[in-house]
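Hi, here's the filled form for the chain we discussed.

Project: internal
Contact: R.S.
Residues: 506
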Amino acid sequence: MSDLVVWSICLPLLGAAATFVGPGRLAPAVGGAFALATAVTGAMVTWLVYDGGVMRHELGGWGAPLGVELYVDGLNVFMLGMTAVVALAISVASLTYFGVRDHAASGPGRWSSAGGYWPVWLTLWASMNLAFASADLFNLYIALELVGLSAVALMLIGRDTQVLTAAMRYLLASLMASLGYLLGVAMLYARYGTLDLYLIGAQLTGEPATWMAMALMSVGLFVKTALFPLHFWLPPAHSSAPGPVSAILSALVVKVSFYLLLRLWFVVFADLLSPTFGQVVGVLAAGAIVGGSVQAILQRRLKLLIAYSTVAQLGYMFLLVPLTIPYGGSEAWHGGAWSGGMYHMLSHALAKSAMFLAAAAVLLSVGSDRIRHFRGMAHELPVATFAFALAGVSLMGLPPSGGFVAKWFLVSAAIETGQWWWAVVILGGGLLTAAYIFMVIRYAFLPPSPPAFKPVPKLLQATAMVLALLAVLIGLRAVEPFALLEMGTPFVEAAHVGTHQGEVAE
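And the returned structure, exactly as it came back:
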């Protein structure tokens, strides 16, 4: 059954090839079919790991250190499953979104957005699945590069000067970050003679070359994840891309480099992690939460507001680092903080993709994403408005949403480990989130005024609503995802997870 892991990577690649060589008018149908098959495969891998434990697959029968080995544990399939759900929903929305764009731009010699979108999108999906299943530093580098290049190519579907400028900035930042990561990989290979994550982790020593490799790789991945203050490329990139592409970038792409950071820190460099390191990452995370939220409040364009919100929400994920690392004389890793941070990743992926798809619907309807043009939106586009508000409930951390569960565990971990200042940041960040969410909602309920709203596809709005509902509903049933996260986590035996399992069950 481990072959399914390989198929989760190969199927979208086959789909990309089929949509590239086939007739452009058939690309949406073929791409949609392969998207469904890839999502089903990802869901099956997730279930198999949940039911039977960790899976390994040696490509060609050659395992590490000579061959390439795919490895999936609870964390891997958590990422695979999250990607399957969100990516399938975005694929459905893309069918109607690019259909409307192509119809509006129809004419002799016009280029089909959908024809160019599907091969690149499916390649990006395959690259993300490869990153989640790889256990080798060089394969992870290859996957990281493919993700970055595919993401830039997807942005260029927008075909205007603003998108081109943002895409070039994103590309340069991504390439510089990749260089740092690759230098770190080379230093580790020169010292330990292997690229396997677990073999390096077993031999690790705290010498200068190892510290330098850790620093280079971490900073490179900070840039790719857009951690404050290295987020300069994210707001223009995410706000200028076409709606479904913005959803992909914000909900999924930035999570890939964050996932790699966790694998590196907690598998390869676990022996080097210290409370001081955790506090430094925590300061950057707090800067992201406060700085990103304040910037979001200051925006007058919806997509820029959502993009700065992504900068802020990424901070909550990084807070799991200071809250997980043993602190205050304790030698135990805090499993509750780990689960809370990862659950925030899931709830954010669902909520943020819902927000960007709702914004795409508004943009198609109004022709502008300036918030002052949204007067009467609640009456004219009730589904999109409700989807945006519902996603905001999860981002704010209100019960019973997934965001509430995630922040509850993070705040509990902050109090239990004596790091109360992170609890203040989390609660304060929730209030700032409410400020920019209600700013949009307020305009939506004001009396209508020009420009007039045009009809938009119901399927696009419905997809946003489904994702927003999922962002809330996952707060009602967190036992299985939390159990999945505990499978194969590097510190699960030392973590105090029993207490938190009981809390989730309640």
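Let me know if anything looks off before we file it.
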